[in-house]
Design brief:
Blueprint: H1 2-8, E1 15-18, H2 22-28, E2 35-38, H3 43-56, H4 60-64
Parallel strand pairs: 1-2
Length: 70
Amino acid sequence: AFHLMNEIRPGTPIVISSGYGERAVREEFNSSLAGVINKPYTVSELREKFAAVLAHGKTAESLKAGASDS
């Protein structure tokens, strides 16, 4: 789904939810993610992650240009 979303609308901020570590997830997606949230997570944690991504206007292009994520 990640690759298809980027094909349809490049630069869309994408947050991946995974049970794997953030480093492994970012390596899998070439670090072009707006964020990673590890399972399990609460609704509050998910809300905070989305708010942080939206507040920083993170996109795949900004991350490739050197923006960082927590």
